[in-house]
User: Fold this.
Amino acid sequence: MPTTKTPPHITTLIALTAFSTLSLNMFLPSLASIANDLDADYGTVSLAVAGYLAITAVIQLIVGPLSDRIGRRPVILGALALFTGASITCALAQDVWTFLIFRMLQGGIISGYALSLVIVRDTTSEREAAGLIGYISMAMAIAPMLGPMLGGVLDTVFGWRSNFYFYAASGVFLLVLCWIDLGETKSARSSEINGGSDTAITLLREPLFWAYSLCSAFSTGAFYIFLTGAPLVARTEFGASTAELGLFIGTITAGFIVGGFIAGRFAPRFAPTTMMLAGRLVACTGLLIGITLLATGWLSPMVFFGSTIFVGLGNGITMPSSNVSAMSVRPNLAGTAAGLNGALIVAGGAILTTVTGLALPEKGAAIALLALMLSASGAGLVSVLWAIRLSGTERLIQ
Assistant:
C-alpha cells in the first residue's frame, strides 16, 4: 500500500457524497410506476426505500473496518463497480424481486459518503477536517432537494427505468473520476501502530467514541422526527397544501446548509467540542422559543417552521465536528469509526421515526412534535457535555 497520502480534490468527495444521497431519493416519484410495470403492490416496491436504508447501515459496518484493513481506494472503487452493475440490472429487471435484490446491492454507494469523511480525516488535522466536512455537508443537503425533481422529469419523459440508467452512468463517471483522482490516503503506519490488534470492539469500549457518536445520532434524530411528523402538523394544525408542505419541509434543509457553511468557516478555528456545543445550543434554544410561543397561542406556520429551522442550523454546525471527533478517538480505526457512527445514525433514525409515528397525537401535534425534537436535541447536548467531561475542559477553551 502506498505510504504517500494523495488526497482527491474536494469536488471528487462532494460528488461521492451527493450521489450517495441521490441514490436514496431520486427515483421516489417513480415508485407507483415501478409497481405498475412490474405487477407488484406498492408496499412491496416501497421496500426499495426502507430495505435500502437498513442495508446501508449494514454496509457501513462492513466497509469501514475493511477500509482500515485494505485501504480506502480499493473499497470505494469496488463499491462503485457494484453500484454500477446493480443499477444496470435494476434498469433491466422484469420482476419485482430481481429489482429489489439489486436495489439492495446499490447500497454499496454509501461507501462513497462514509469514506469521503474518512479520507478528509486521513489527510487533514481534526479541526481542518471538520471545516471541509462542513462544506461537503452542504452538498449532501442540496442533493436530496434536487434529486426527486430530476427523477420526476426523467420518469415523465423516458419512464422509470431511465432513473437507473442515470444511476449506472453516474457510477461509471464516479468510477473513472476516482480511478484518476483518488489515491490511497490510509498510511501503512496506521496498521503498524499496534500491530493490528485494535478492532471495532476496541472502539466500542471507548466512552469518548460513544459520546461523539451519540451526539451525531441524536442530532440527526431530531431531523428524522421532523420529517415523520411535519406532514401531520402541516395538515391538522395549518391546513397546508402539498406544495406548501414541500416548501415548509425544505426550510430545515436550508438551515442545515447555512449551518454547514458556518462550520466550514469556523470549525478550523475552534475546538470540536466548542462547535458541537454551539450547534446543540442553537437547536435547543430555537425549539424552546417555538414551544413557548405555541403554548402562549402563537400558532402559525411561521412560528412552528421558524423554530425547526434552528434544528437544521444547529445540525449543520454540530455534525462535521462530532463526526470527525468520532473518527479521531482511534485514528488507526478511522474507517471503522465512520462505519459504526453511520450505522448508529441510521439505526437511531429508524427508532425515532417509529416512536414519533406512534406517539404523535393529531390534536396538539405542533407542540408535541417540537417537544420530541427538543428531547432528541437535548440528548445530543447531554452527549456533548459528556464528551467535554471525558476529553477535558481544556478542549473547550483552547
